[in-house]
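Project standup — Tuesday

K.O.: blocked on the structure for the chain from last sprint. Re-posting the sequence here as requested.
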Amino acid sequence: MKWLCVILTKKVGCHLWALSTMIPKKVKTFPYPYIIEHRMLSGYKSKNNIKDSYRRLKLQEGCSLDDVRSSFRNLAKQYHPDSGSITADSATFMQIEAAYRAVLSDVAKKMKSSESENEEETKFKSKAPQHRQYLSLEGVGFGTPSQRERQYMQFRVDRAAEQVMEYQKQKLESQYAMNTMIAKDIRQSKKVKITQAIDRLVEDLIQESMAKGDFDNLSGKGKPLQKFSYCPHIDPMTHNLNRILIDNGYQPEWILMQKEIRETIEELRKNIVASRNKLGEPMTPCRQKQWSQICEQLIDDIKKLNKRINDFNLIVPILNRQMVHFNANKEIARAQKAYEILVEKTKTTDVDTKENEQEKVKMFRLKSGFLKWINLMLK
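H.V.: unblocked you, prediction finished:
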């Protein structure tokens, strides 16, 4: 029995020596190297312990390191013996600390495994041709295909949002430009209307004063105007320019336009009367067609002339100098009436010429008869 005890003690001593060599250096610093807490010697951790640790920290698998640290910090505030809270408990805190260490090591292992997978994938990609890495997803993103797909979807969402914002921006800019143009046109039209209203009001006041006789007793009435009388309200430069213009036969634009309108309407009236006179009477179907074409041409010319009259009325400075539009139908009727008057005149002239010829024949006969009678008497 003694030799059996010696052999067993030797074997136990060898096993303890072997275990002491496997303990890390930091653990050997304890005063009793062979008595170590269970949580320090537990090299193997089952899956159930990891799940309990996650549940104790109120976390789920796949969380980040920041989530683990924040959860442990919140629980330490509740259960740490020195926290001073109502739920402080040293045993519970030790369990939480053990769970924290287990979860922390598990998360670190998972991160290392994912990094090793990424390194393997990058090694595999580096061996492949470079142009084949970005054939899909428009070359957007980096990492695994699933990560690149998520990044590409986010890129598409951002691009669509940018396009929508750009479209709305362009729409608002165009609308703002259109509104500014409309406002500018409205201001310009109001300015023109106010100016014309003031000019017409002044002209009406002048005409009213003239009708009342306020200008009858003016000094210099009935005397000729001085050609270059100096006006104190006009600067010398304007006075000299006006004098130069008058000397060179300058006329205002509205006077020239008025003259042009009157000459145009007179020419149109003469031409249509002459055309009607050429067609004559009675009107055959062919001549009737020609007359309708002449009337249509006159209507077009009258429309152009009326537009010219509108331009004239905008620039004429005196209200009673404005002109009214010409009516094409009235002008055609006027031409027809002028033609009828011309025909009557020609008829009367023809009758008069016939009567004169008859009278001349009668006088000639009388003279010839009288001469014959005298000759007979003389014989």
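K.O.: great, moving the ticket to review. Confidence is low (pLDDT under 50) at residues 1-47, 126-131. Residues 46 and 377 are 182 Å apart (CA to CA).
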